[in-house]
Amino acid sequence: MGIFAANVEEHFINYARPQENGNKSEVRWATFYKPDENGFLIQGEDALNFSFRNYTTAQLNDATHPYQLKANPFTVLIIDFDHGALGNGSCGPIPMDKYFTNICDKSYRLRMDFRNQ
């Protein structure tokens, strides 16, 4: 546990083949702001996951090389209540079933409060 600070570029990992990355898990709260401006706080009743970047998921999926990524004039904040297994069959066997998140077997309730900071 700890408190960490990073700008949006520091949340992104520039892999040789663009892909989703930078997920932060078991997060209790996070604040987002521009220097010298108001921001906002996300805080869940339970721990949550988030990623913060200059690219949409579609942009990452469509690019095959980093030079194809063009930063947007906005930032993308993705908030998840859970995160499933990582990895695929490209570099070995897929993760075991026990590491996958099955969201269809039960109902979930997610509550988040957004407050100006």
* Beta strands, count: 4
CA(first)-CA(last) distance: 22 Å
Task: Count the domains.
Answer: 1
Unreliable runs: none
Percentage of residues in DSSP E strands: 25-35%
Q: Helical region count?
A: 1
Question: Which CATH class applies here?
Answer: Mainly Beta
CATH topology: Beta-galactosidase, Chain A, domain 5
State the major sheet.
4 strands, antiparallel
Give the helix proportion (percent range): under 10%
Broad structural category: mainly beta
In round numbers, the mean pLDDT is: 83
Mass-distribution shape: globular
The CATH architecture is: Distorted Sandwich
Element-by-element helix/strand order: EEHEE
Radius of gyration: 16 Å
3D architecture notes:
It is globular, with a radius of gyration of 16 Å. It contains one helix and four strands. Helices cover 5% and strands 30% of the residues. The protein has one helix at residues 57-62; strands at 24-33, 39-53, 76-80, 112-116. It starts with 23 loop residues before the first strand and ends with a strand. The model has no long low-confidence stretch (mean pLDDT 83). The chain has one domain: Beta-galactosidase, Chain A, domain 5 (Distorted Sandwich), CATH 2.70.98. Strands 1, 2, 3 and 4 form a four-stranded antiparallel sheet that branches. It is mainly β and 117 residues long.
